[in-house]
Amino acid sequence: MNNWIKELNSNPVDWLLNSNPWTKYKTCTDLLGLNESETESIEAKAELINDKRIKTLAKETKDWLPVAATRNNDPKITYFKLKTLAEFGLKYTDLELQKTVDKASEHMIENLFGVRGQVPERPKKGKKYKKPDLSADVWHISPCNSPMITTALLELGVKNDLIDSAVEELKNRWTSKVGWFCHFFFVESQFKKLQIGCPIEGLQALETFSKIPELKESDFSRFAFEPINFHKDYGRTLYYFGRSKKFWTLKYPFVWYNALYLADILTRFDFLKNEPVVKELIDWIINMQDNEGKFKPTSVFMSYKEWDFSNKKEASPWITFLCCRILKQYFG
Question: What is the DSSP track for 39-78?
């Protein structure tokens, strides 16, 4: 028996294989370790790319960032949709996603993928803050957006010089624990004062580094972990980032800083296996299962109300899959 299954009250794998297409496919590849060319995987992938919800989500990514985001945790932002499709197992060759990839790659700034929007400027003394034009053709790089695009493209199987440049530049941003943090005038003072990077940017950098074998156990990854570890020991809210009820939630898609997202990423690294924050996350996940080894969402995004991970009344195959994969990554 696999070590991770011993941590569950019951083995849910058969249930996952008879659920929705995205869970079925990723259960085949990530939990059972089947090759993408094996019959079970091919059949599951065919179901995946022919699902109406998947087709609709893929179509929605074609309209790449038509307006600037007004908040970074909005699951309707295009790059969150693209990353979700990648996490479900789609590749850039599926459902014409190459067109989305091309649009996502049009705006490179300092070798990183840009996002639409103006960098807010501090208003002059006596002047009111002027809201920017959200539809303006202005782009910038951001520590909690640009790496997410890099990760999504890597997961989609994109390989080109732009990806290589983005990874190299992300490494340059994490050569110390100060790392990369938001330099918007209304947030940067706390990061500067504490001399520590941004927790969610550290997490997203780790997510990118986890996709590249030579970077997984590197110093870049160790530096990117520092803000997360600091935040746990700090014991207080670090700007937007707290560890209250909103943090301890089984919620998907991964658009903001929560325990499930952290557990999914941090358990990919061998050097973090004995870290208190990781053990804390694993204990929490084990305690969240029901008698059948299944997991219910504890918080949802209403924009995904038709998906299994947005129903708090029933166990979710996708949330259950994520928790199983986390346990597999940690226990082997």
Answer: HHHHHHHHHHHT-HHHHHHHHHTTS--SS--SSTT-TTSH
Q: State the pTM of this model.
A: 0.94
Name the β-bridge partners of 112.
109
- Cβ contacts of residue 147 below 8 Å, gap of 6+? 112, 170, 201, 204, 205, 207, 208
**CA–CA gap between residue 184 and residue 145 (Å, rounded):** 14
Quick one: 122 exposed, middle or buried, by C-beta within 10 A (0-12, 13-18, 19+)? exposed
Residue 140's SS3 state is strand
Nearest to 250 by CA among 313, 330, 312: 312
Per-residue pLDDT of the chain (332 residues; tens, 9 = 90+): 579 999 999 999 999 999 999 999 999 999 999 998 999 999 999 999 999 999 999 999 999 999 999 888 899 999 999 999 999 999 999 999 999 999 999 999 999 999 999 887 777 777 776 777 888 999 999 998 999 999 999 999 999 999 999 999 999 999 999 898 887 777 778 788 888 888 999 999 999 999 999 999 999 999 999 999 998 888 888 777 888 888 999 999 999 899 999 999 999 999 999 999 999 999 999 999 999 999 999 999 999 999 999 999 999 999 999 999 999 999 98
Give the 3-state secondary structure of residue 220. helix
